[in-house]
Amino acid sequence: EKGGYETFMEKEIHDQPAAVRDTLLGRTDEDGRLVLDELRISEEELREVNRIYVVACGTAAYAGMVAKYAIEHWTRIPVEVSLAHEFRYCDPIVDARTLVVSISQSGETMDTLMAVKHAKDLGARTISICNTHGSTIPRGSDAVLYTHAGPEIAVASTKAFVAQITACYVLGLYLAQLRGQTYADDAKQVMAELHEMPEHIETLLASTDRVEEIARFMADSRSVLFLGRHVGYPIAMEGALKLKELAYIHAEGFAAGELKHGPIALIEPGQPVFVVVPGPDTPHGLHKKVVSNIQEIRARGARTLVIAEEGDEDVVPFADEVIRVPKTSPLLQPLLTVIPLQVFALHLSTAKGLDVDQPRNLAKSVTVE
Ligand code: F6R
């Protein structure tokens, strides 16, 4: 049942190419237009949408943060990401033209379910992105877009996460297409790139030796920091969450631009810091900005573990380790950059002799508020 792997988590990490592939399957017609027949909300209603809330918890909320960047870019609809358990208390501005997108692997997370209920009470349209057929959240939503990651057994979410991000891209492109955005032209190109992701993930998974070694060397770390920007920011948060859950190490992810507003005070000699570097073509000179962040923390003694695209040589002078990911367009990079962080947390947990699949104090689905 573990497909020859030692743990479910390791198997599920290796299921990721298929999780992305299957989540893309059957969602375009011969002309490359997106078809989401399964959405039981009329096209008119979707065209009317003028605000989107994403509600989710934990890893699923980080998928939602990635979705915000993509959906806003492609559709120009404002997107707010709300932790499901905070949604109700922020007195959300919701009406019939609001689309509330919930993201949940299990479809049973009580906090997320309650947020969806609240949204419905306020008159919103609700779509559930979910990995579990017939579970409670999709049943309580107007529409569902299933992720096809297959059952996820390990408590820490991996393949569901990449499937959630994939489904969010598909939803964003579909909404753009419906609204006749110029970006709809791009949609074909983005879809073509998405179809290449499974192969890229396979390439990454075939070359994890160095990440495993780094994890073993770091087994007695007391704290690890993660920096990212743009879509790399939620990936930094996800990298930190995986490490907390699996290795019980204090970890914090933050937006690289925040460094000088406080966190840089944490940097002392030997402090390990993972940095997710945007591709060199990312707009607004972000790549250069992150490279100078690496330089700043290195100058203060940080041990820099840099995740950068193939061919990005600018990071080399300031990196103690460079972990390479294949080149892709900026918005899609999270599907690749998260992989080494998952592998790192898995192997650090293993090196500490911990229970990878069942970390202490956690349950796979949280069915109480
Ligand atoms: C992290 C993790 C949790 C879940 C969260 C939401 O590895 O597994 O943070 O992502 O509890 O669960 P679902 O997606 O089932 O609603």
UniProtKB/TrEMBL annotation:
E.C. number: 2.6.1.16
Compartment annotation: Cytoplasm
Keyword Cytoplasm appears in the UniProt entry: yes
GO molecular function terms attached to this record: carbohydrate derivative binding; glutamine-fructose-6-phosphate transaminase (isomerizing) activity
Entry annotated with the keyword GTP-binding: no
Record-annotated active site: K364
GO cellular component terms given for this protein: cytosol
Catalysed reactions listed for this entry: D-fructose 6-phosphate + L-glutamine = D-glucosamine 6-phosphate + L-glutamate
Predominant location category: cytoplasm
Keywords recorded for this protein, A-Z: Aminotransferase, Cytoplasm, Glutamine amidotransferase, Repeat, Transferase
GO BP annotations listed: amino sugar biosynthetic process; carbohydrate metabolic process; fructose 6-phosphate metabolic process; protein N-linked glycosylation; UDP-N-acetylglucosamine metabolic process
Assembly: Homodimer.
Function: Catalyzes the first step in hexosamine metabolism, converting fructose-6P into glucosamine-6P using glutamine as a nitrogen source.
Protein name: Glutamine--fructose-6-phosphate aminotransferase [isomerizing]
